[in-house]
Amino acid sequence: MSPIIQFDRVSVTAHEKTILVDISFALFAGEKAALCGKSGSGKSSVLRTLLGLHTIKSGAVYFQQQRLTASTIQAIRSCTAYIGQEPILGAESVRDALLLPFQFKAHRQYRPTEARLIEALQRLQLPADILNQESSRISGGEKQRVALARGLLLGKKLYLLDEVTSALDAESRQAVFDVFSDPDLTVLSVAHDPAWLELCGIVLELEAGRLTLVKRNGNA
């Protein structure tokens, strides 16, 4: 079996500063990996590099054995749900935010019913009446879970997550854990939450843009 994601000795510079140095790791379908380290160590830069938001100075990134280039990046983005610490939902109401991708031709035929919207929200400990709330008025943790719900509705299989449990209470955090226990979902995340790190089968520690430790947990 080939990895779904592979970094092969990747170095990245941004604004004339080296932010990643000689990074190598592989992630197979269904695996859950967490990037950890001090602030500024390069964790989020790994996610941004995979999304084509940083220029690779040397080495290569592969997605499903296809090398990441300007012409192939769209294939990665179409398969991926990226949820940052403060997601931009892109619509005035939560309902419109969830339905936004289904306005496009590629997803129009899969537009979810009201029942499916509510089911996706409830999986993430969000009440049905949040659908009628303004996106700008819900909390950061709620925005993250709405963005996760949108990914689930779209059937995304690869999730890039940046501290998605940092603003959640214990019950909401457990709901997120339960969703990502699904063996069909592949996860590359930035995290400091010890419980999330324990959930992940692979922990990648970074320091000053370098990968210093790859740890495989016993539950991998």
From TrEMBL:
* A GO term, aspect molecular function: ATP binding
**Record bears the keyword Ubl conjugation:** no
Q: Which UniProt keywords apply?
A: ATP-binding, Nucleotide-binding
Task: Domain (ABC transporter): give its ranges.
Answer: 5-220
Which Pfam families does this one have? ABC_tran (PF00005)
Record keywords: Nucleotide-binding included? Answer: yes
Protein's name in the database: ATP-binding cassette domain-containing protein
- Source species, please? Candidatus Methylobacter oryzae
